[in-house]
Amino acid sequence: MKLDPVTLAILGNKLAAVSEEMCLTLQRTGRTLYVKETADFACALAGLDGRFFAYPRSIGVSGFVGLECGPAIAAVGTLEPGDVILTNDPYRSEGLATHLPDLHMIEPYFHNGKIVAYGWCFVHCSDVGGRVPSSISPVNTEIFQEGLRIPPVKLMKKGEMNPDVALFLNANSRTPDANMGDIRAMLAALAAGRRRLEQTISQHGAETVSAAAVDLVTYSAEKARTVLKRVPAGTYSFDDYLDDDAATRLPVRVALSATFADGEVHLDFTGTDPQVSTAMNIPSRGRPHAWLTLRVLALVNTLDPTTPLNVGMLAPVKITAPEGSLVNPQEPAAVGVRHAAAIRVNDVLNGAFGKALPDVMPAASSGTVIPVVMAEPDGHGGRRVQVIEPMIGGTGARKGRDGIDGRDSGISNLANNPVETVEAELGIEITTYALRPNSGGAGQWRGGCGMELTFRVLTDDSNVLGRGLERLLFRPWGSNGGRPGMPGQLILNRGTEREKHLGKIDVLTVNAGDTVTFLTPGAGGWGHPAARDPQAVLQDVANGFVTIEAAASDYGVAIVDGVVDAVKTESLRKGMVASTVVNGQGVERERWDQAFPASVMDGLNRSLVALPGSVRQRRRREIFDAVLAELPEGFPRVAATQTAVNAARQRLEAAAGSL
């Protein structure tokens, strides 16, 4: 049964509205800040194949359209009315869950004794046990350290909560009451979806609604293929780096070749580094996973906003994600900070697509999401665990538009937490929450500014966690002559004699009176900075986005007594040389690529991933230790002589050849 276009459009809107009402129910009844304010959750309707045919556009995490419920549904066997599946295990759910704090629930929706659809929702909960408060640590080495693993099980049986499952949940969390509050909110959301779907069936009939679930996916696939046909055929390659793996000083490479042909795209991640022995791996299970395909959704929806948001948008996408690599790790790899790698995947997709569509795609966004967590003593031997703020930077500039300041919905679409609410929940005083001047990359169109968050700690023996700290070394790249954004920083007690600049942290212990400052990266600029309208630079100075000094040094615009000095500006701009590279990566990345060229890294990583897991990481460390021994301490922040770079590259080539 194929529906007529009018009926399909009506049902498409109705079913999307059902998913959005589920989200609103979840947010309004949720217990924690991360649900009520940050909105780190989502809801959807899945078809009989376990894939989403209706997904909300305007609330919750925007990028999980491509997740699949099928393996988790199959794992529990026969389902009855009132049953609800719960899981958080990335491996046993085949990538539905992507790290342990994300609790996923699935409820079968019955009509006349038969399942007609499934309701799905997830929330990021406060704590599921593990080695550290909030369960996420970048230096965990296997998933067993990250908390309680919940294989697909029935939390609810015929409408009654399974007390054994609830007991395990409560016994393995530092915040059992908060978790159970959010779990009950999830059940309320699933109940809302069940009622609204039944109402839709009563209006249109079960056969029509079931047909809509199939036709909406087919329609989205057709529209996605039409959009992708507009991309010039060819293969476009790009690579980028995580600063390090949080345990060593070795950067972690993400490489991509995107091949467009006849309305389809093949995303090949061959050349990406092997899985790391820390928590940044993405458990995609080799599928066209949400974390590997998000930029495709953004491209399709940008060029055709009428495309229904469902899994059909990914029908034209094929994936090659080598098993044992960062983007398809083998169990029991740790995955808690998988979002850091997912953001870099988003950046390489953006960079590759930008080669095909330079006038459409933006420069790099800030490239980081940092859920800043506080765990403070509760006075009873335990700890209160709350997210202070999911810190982000800005969006990259694109042709004709500046980037957005302090707002980057690149992978998650999270909201900020109100200062008053945070201070009511935790023993801190937020002294600064503001945009970071000069952080956006200079360009004809300016990159979005990063953010500053500074807070004073009011309770001794508190812990601060900032998982996902990135772009402290390798900057967000500029495009088409634009300059890179400013790198991030983490500073303890800034402006005092106890000031200390930190890198990535696991658990930072602080006491009353300490201040903690997070400075997030700015995004990349687009186009030569000397081509920027001087009046736009003046407006940036007036708004506090750019200082007078940076206006002169970065844009060649002289501002005197609040106005543009045309004569001095002309003189300054004569000395500015346009960039000759497509992507302005920053001096650190340029130095790194001289010693570790992409062509050699592609071959090396292909060989490393093919090795047994027990030797893969050891061989990689041995090779990099030998290569970096030729280079100065602090490289690539510190420059190396050409002789040293040549020696390092020769060692790398020899190692790659020996494998």
TrEMBL record:
Lineage: superkingdom: Bacteria
Pfam families: Hydantoinase_B (PF02538)
GO cellular component, one term: cytosol
Domain Hydantoinase B/oxoprolinase: 4-529
Any GO BP: glutathione metabolic process
A GO molecular-function annotation: 5-oxoprolinase (ATP-hydrolyzing) activity
Keyword set, alphabetical order: Plasmid
Family annotation (InterPro entries): Hydantoinase_B, Oxoprolinase-like
Record flagged with keyword tRNA-binding: no
Name used for this protein in its record: Hydantoinase B/oxoprolinase family protein
Organism of this sequence: Shinella sumterensis
Lineage, opening ranks: Bacteria, Pseudomonadati, Pseudomonadota, Alphaproteobacteria, Hyphomicrobiales
